[in-house]
């Protein structure tokens, strides 16, 4: 990847304040010129963001210059790419939350990410789904429906159902 005319964005302070840096990153991407490269400095590789940008015609490269520091370089591809239309990760719409819960009864791995700081809920969920054995599902207690996680679930072949408990509690089941 050609790394020239670099625009730098360190998202670690944004994350430390408890805010999702997605909007700040997308604002930088929106104003980037074709000859510019966006350098995102973070403590982890922003996989869901990278998949979204890849679908929009961007390429990326990741480096780890120091322990706990990740540099992600993002650049617009020269070729014309059409936006990929992704169906909802909820690819089995005939199953209700209760039906999925019954289907995986005894095979639900349960985690609670409600008290984790950004970006740990998403990182934790992605780590846990990779460990799921066949015929198991992940039951997640979350504050809200994690919108940036949903395309990543689809990319990895997972489906989900959810149920609102109240305004700050949601139950989410992720399964194949």
Q: How is this structure best summarized?
A:
The protein has 176 residues and is of the alpha/beta class. The protein has two domains: 6-76, TusA-like domain (Translation Initiation Factor IF3, 2-Layer Sandwich), CATH 3.30.110; 97-175, Translation Initiation Factor IF3, CATH 3.30.110.
Secondary-structure blueprint:
Layout lengths: L5 E5 L1 H5 L5 H10 L5 E6 L4 H9 L2 E9 L2 E8 L20 H7 L4 E5 L7 H12 L5 E6 L7 H6 L3 E8 L2 E7 L1
Parallel strand pairs: 1-2, 5-6
Antiparallel strand pairs: 2-4, 3-4, 6-8, 7-8
Structural class per helix/strand content?
Answer: alpha/beta
Please give the domain count. 2
What fraction of residues sit in β-strands? 25-35%
Shape: elongated
The helix/strand order is EHHEHEEHEHEHEE
CATH class of the largest domain, anyone?
Alpha Beta
The name of the CATH architecture of the largest domain is 2-Layer Sandwich
Average pLDDT value? 86
Q: Output the CATH topology of the largest domain.
A: Translation Initiation Factor IF3
- Major β-sheet strand ordering: 1-2-4-3
Main sheet attributes: strand count, strand direction, barrel closure: 4 strands, mixed
Work out the radius of gyration. 18 Å
Helix share of residues?
Answer: 25-40%
Number of helices: 6
Please identify which CATH superfamily of the largest domain we are dealing with: TusA-like domain
pLDDT < 50 runs, ≥5 residues: 80-92
Report the count of strand segments. 8
* CA distance, first residue to last residue: 35 Å
């Amino acid at each position: 990847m050609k790394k020239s005319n670099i625009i730098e964005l360190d998202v670690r302070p944004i994350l430390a304040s408890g805010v999702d840096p997605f909007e700040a990153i997308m604002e930088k991407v929106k104003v980037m010129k074709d000859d510019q490269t966006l350098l995102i400095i973070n403590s982890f590789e922003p996989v869901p963001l990278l998949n979204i940008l890849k679908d929009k015609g961007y390429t990326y490269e990741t480096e780890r210059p120091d322990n706990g520091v990740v540099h992600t370089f993002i650049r617009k591809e020269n070729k014309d790419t059409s936006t990929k239309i992704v169906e909802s990760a909820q690819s089995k719409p005939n199953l209700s939350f209760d039906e999925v819960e019954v289907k995986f009864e005894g095979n639900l791995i349960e985690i609670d990410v409600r008290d984790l700081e950004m970006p740990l809920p998403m990182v934790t969920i992605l780590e846990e789904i990779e460990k799921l054995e066949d015929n198991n599902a992940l039951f997640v207690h979350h504050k809200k429906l994690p919108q940036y996680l949903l395309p990543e679930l689809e990319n990895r072949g997972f489906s989900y159902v959810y149920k609102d408990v109240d305004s700050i509690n949601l139950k989410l089941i992720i399964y194949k």
